[in-house]
Design a protein that fits this description.
two-stranded antiparallel sheet; 9 strands; alpha/beta; 7-stranded mixed sheet; 27% strand; 240 residues
């Protein structure tokens, strides 16, 4: 497996969660279960998603059963003519939803396999003229301001083992922390954000970042689903 330079094990180990130690233990058990499961199909797979057809290579996370909740929130929020940033775009599902509704979208991801997948999927779904895909570590390769920023961040704070794992875990929440520190500078005057999070990670730290950023905050969708027989709450957040 590829060791990612930016994913420091020491950063992950030095992070001090704000959730209870009991919850930390449960999250680590989930991490072990997910890592043990591992593997899966090595070839590209095709997935339907809210009227889209997505081709997803093995190095990119596929939409999960709760992903349509986030997709629906993005569809409800996007206005025709919006300039949209899809941070950590993965297969490009959210970028394509925004483009289908008439937005111009910049889709960025640290994972080069994801960037390539977005270009393929934008062409496949007839929105290549509205979606630009670009490699970026958080905002490093992003210029300008956006009417809407969408981010489905890694939920956990452990060091990723390979590119596919980057979608689920962010060593010491370095990327998430940077995102909140820099996001406001990339929003238009009336800009807003749609973010996803879950109790698979440190919800209290996520909420602290929201509060410290001074954002108006509303939970627009919430559901609880089992993950490896453990109940997990997934929430969609609107920030402005």
């Amino acid at each position: 497996m590829t060791k990612l330079d930016h994913q420091s094990t020491s950063e992950a180990e030095s992070y001090r969660p704000l959730v209870s130690q009991e919850r930390v233990k449960e999250i680590k058990e989930l991490r072990r279960a997910m890592t043990t499961q591992g593997g899966g199909e090595e070839s590209e797979q095709t997935h339907p998603f809210l009227g889209l057809t997505l081709r997803v290579p093995s190095q990119v996370m596929t939409p999960c059963p709760v992903s349509p909740m986030l997709g629906g929130a993005v569809f409800a929020e996007v206005q025709p003519g919006d300039r949209v940033l899809d941070m950590g775009t993965g297969s490009g599902s959210l970028a394509l939803i925004a483009a289908k509704k008439g937005a111009d979208v910049l889709a960025v991801d640290l994972n080069p396999h994801a960037v390539a997948a977005v270009r393929v999927n934008a062409e496949l779904n007839g929105v290549a003229d509205r979606v630009e895909a670009r490699a970026s570590d958080v905002f490093d390769s992003v210029e300008g301001r956006f009417d809407l920023i969408v981010f489905n961040p890694p939920f956990q704070w452990f060091a990723a083992t390979d590119y596919a794992d980057v979608a689920g875990t962010d060593a010491g929440y370095q990327a998430l922390t940077r995102f909140f520190r820099e996001a406001r500078a990339h929003l238009t005057e009336k800009g807003r954000m749609i973010l996803f999070f879950s109790t698979m990670g440190d919800v209290e730290y996520f909420e602290k970042l929201v509060a410290d950023g001074g954002f108006d905050h509303k939970v627009v969708f919430s559901t609880t689903q089992p993950v490896f027989d453990m109940p997990v709450e997934f929430t969609v957040h609107r920030l402005s």
